[in-house]
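Entry under discussion copied across for reference:
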Amino acid sequence: MNIKVTVKQLGRKHPVLSEQKIEIAYEDSVISLKNLLKLIVQQQVEEFNAQSFELEDEDSTKIPTDNYLNILTDTGKVGFGSIYNLKKADVQKAQDNAIQAFEDGMFAIFYNDEQFSDLGQTIDLSLQHTFTFIRLTFLAGSYW
């Protein structure tokens, strides 16, 4: 089944990832939030593990151009597109981490303006709305 997903971060006008379609291995129209999270993580891990790992001496093809480097430094993260860790991701660990992160309030999930707060909530996938994942950032500091 295809679902639409958007990932956002608070304080940003534009989404981190624009709306994309994800194919999950599920055929029923009703699913629990916990199962949906597991299926999305499974799909993402399988996609990551399918990427080819190439050892390179120099990242000459992945060095950002001057105009793109400013955008990267403004976001606070500069990446060159290379994968330096050759380990494959573990599906079970990734699923457990995603569920724990949701329970700890590290991200919020919306389905057509409805926020989910419980992993046991059921979702009607036949409506084909977009899922929005919002990464929550905690503020540090005090009022003193």
About this structure: The CA atoms of residues 82 and 143 lie 41 Å apart.
